[in-house]
């Protein structure tokens, strides 16, 4: 029996999804935040307004979740628009 | 007095008075200066591994100095509450974020060379982003932290009432907010 490593277990642990969180702030205009949600994410006006109000009323809102790479680029895009956004991995 | 942006057959148009344009160009200039200073810390040393020099990627061991100015921090915020994730994101993306913001701010400064501004939707979006950066910095200087602060500042709309530099700054903030808001409605109208 040659001394080799045993074959790795074919067990893929799926990475937990990352979340994009947009935070409320008293500076960004409601018209602007809603526009950003529509133009960057392609949301309908209604969905963009709902999310914008959720950010406004609740202080923050998970706008979407996905792979680390996708959420990283979303965070960068939000910062480009001047929105307060962070990423976090689901528990 | 500035004229509201409108969407029409020639595109999205608006106009600003010469004093307003001068003021806005100066504000754009201040932020350009802040960002250019920060861009300096991104310079890679001359003796760096050529692979890094070629890609412009910053090696992990070359940490970026923390941002001390709160207004600059508002333009270039942390990407996470987790310091390790935030630092890594900053190391890999901050230089691009700075150069994209600089590009839009310089374009906005150039736009304000003439009193009448004519934009297509993409240009209107970039102008709105530049105006938003101005508002973020002014809000930091005015210490706008919550909705109550924001409402207090919003009261200051008449130049006759100005008695202090802070009130003048509030007036400027409200002007930029108004211009941006009319621009957003014109842009939404153009895209519908």
UniProtKB/TrEMBL annotation, chain B:
Organism: Glutamicibacter uratoxydans
Protein name: Uncharacterized protein
InterPro entries registered for this protein in UniProt: AosR (IPR018561)
Domain of life: Bacteria
């Amino acid at each position: 029996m040659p001394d080799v490593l045993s074959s790795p277990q074919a067990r893929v642990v799926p990475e937990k999804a990352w979340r994009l969180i947009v935070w409320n702030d008293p500076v960004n205009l409601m018209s602007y935040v809603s526009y950003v949600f529509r133009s960057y994410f392609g949301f309908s006006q209604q969905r963009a307004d709902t999310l914008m109000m959720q950010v406004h009323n609740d202080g923050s809102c998970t706008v979407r979740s996905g792979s680390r790479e996708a959420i990283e680029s979303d965070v960068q895009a939000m910062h480009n628009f001047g929105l307060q956004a962070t990423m976090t991995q689901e528990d | 007095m500035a004229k509201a942006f409108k969407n029409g057959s020639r595109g999205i148009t608006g106009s600003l008075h010469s004093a307003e344009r001068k003021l806005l160009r100066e504000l754009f200039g201040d932020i350009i200066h802040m960002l250019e200073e920060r861009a300096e810390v991104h310079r890679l040393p001359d003796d760096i591994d050529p692979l890094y020099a070629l890609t412009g990627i910053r090696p992990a061991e070359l940490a970026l100095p923390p941002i001390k100015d709160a207004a600059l921090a508002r333009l270039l915020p942390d990407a996470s509450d987790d310091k390790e994730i935030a630092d890594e994101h900053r190391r890999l993306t901050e230089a691009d974020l700075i150069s994209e913001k600089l590009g839009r701010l310089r374009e906005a400064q150039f736009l304000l060379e003439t009193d009448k501004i004519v934009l297509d939707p993409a240009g209107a979006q970039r102008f709105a982003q530049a105006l938003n950066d101005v508002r973020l910095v002014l809000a930091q200087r005015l210490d706008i932290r919550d909705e109550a602060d924001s409402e207090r500042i919003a009261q200051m709309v008449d130049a006759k009432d100005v008695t202090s530099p802070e009130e003048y700054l509030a007036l400027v903030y409200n002007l930029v907010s108004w211009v941006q808001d009319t621009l957003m409605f014109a842009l939404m109208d153009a895209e519908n």
